[in-house]
Amino acid sequence: MGVCPVRFLRKLRKRADSKSCLEGTAEMILYFTGTGNSRYIAQRIAKATGDTLVSMNDKIKQHDTKPIHGADRLVFVVPTYGWRIPRIVEQWIQETQFTGAVRAWFVMSCGGEIGNAAQYIRSLCAQKGFAYMGTAQVVMPENYIAMFNAPERGEAEQIIENAAPVIDAAAQAIVQGKEFPPPRNNLYDRLMSGAVNPLFYRLFVKADGFHVDERCVGCGNCVELCPLNNITLQEERPVWGKNCTHCMACICLCPEEAIEYKKKSVGKPRYHCGETDG
Fold first, then answer.
1. What is the largest CA-CA distance in the chain?
2. Are 151 and 171 in contact (CB under 8 A)?
3. Residue 68: which of 29, 117, 37, 35 has the closest Cα?
4. CB contact at 8 A, 229 and 109
5. CB neighbours (10 Å) of residue 38?
6. What pLDDT, on the 0 to 100 scale, is given for residue 275?
7. Whole-angstrom distance, CA of residue 55 vs CA of residue 61
8. What is the pTM for the complete model shown?
9. Taking the CB of residue 35, how many other CB atoms lie within 10 A of it?
10. In a structure prediction context, what are the per-residue pLDDT tens digits for the chain, which is 278 residues long?
11. What are phi and psi of 219, to 5 degrees?
């Protein structure tokens, strides 16, 4: 979409890391992202709240579950995987100790809907002793090209523009210490987050469909981007292991567009959120 996605990712990571200080921080925004949607939302909220930005990608990649002390307000910004928050994010939150009178807001980016994710987030907050402050849904451009089509650039920019007031409203609620309005919760939502979510992981979240074509230059960016350290370079070509979360970072941020997922991604536009940094 006009700019090398990997250079943009490194720039955004450097900017976020320069603000990150876990010890003794009263308010923070913790985000997990595959192709940049959740990072964009987190950055926009941070501009309104002044909260510290923390990359859960880096924490998960480094197996860093050191305690986070003195937290008062936590905002978790995450994508929607199978109508719930990513399992690797939930696992990291469960394994990390948080101290302080913690109020927790969750903001979920999605291509269409989050289902009944709020029910499971509420349960997670109860396990962690967080005061649950609600779950907000933000529709962003689709990136799951292992199954769906990503939008072309113009359409993606319009979706991001439409999301801006939703993000700003969430930020305002956080600043005011208000709970988010409860999201939709009907039979369909409960079915998708309940019965369909485990089927989604069992049947679709596999790494063995990823491969590279002759455009691969062995740059290793996919290795660097993988939050689960699931990709290694062998003879200057990436090889995928068994531990994959389908974040789509490797395929959508490959600077040569050399990575494909089975035949399902062939000819599809690659999407990443980076140029629109509002």
1. 54
2. no
3. 29
4. no
5. 27
6. 47
7. 10
8. 0.91
9. 30
10. 444 445 545 554 544 444 444 445 578 999 999 999 999 999 999 999 999 999 999 999 999 999 998 778 999 999 999 999 999 999 999 999 999 878 999 999 999 999 999 999 999 999 999 999 999 999 999 999 999 999 999 999 999 999 999 999 999 999 999 999 999 999 999 999 999 999 999 999 999 999 999 999 999 999 999 999 999 999 999 999 999 999 999 999 999 999 999 999 999 999 999 743 33
11. -70, -25
Record the tokens describing residue 56, joined without a space.
């859960």
- Which pLDDT belongs to residue 10? 52
Residue 168 corresponds to which amino acid? D
CA torsion, ordered 225, 226, 227, 230, to nearest 10 deg: -160
Q: Strands 103-110 and 131-139: what pairing?
A: parallel
Whole-number pLDDT of residue 168: 98
Long-range contacts of 202-208 (CB under 8 A, 24+ apart): 204/146, 204/147, 204/246, 205/81, 205/244, 205/245, 205/246, 206/244, 207/240, 207/241, 207/242, 207/243, 207/244, 208/240
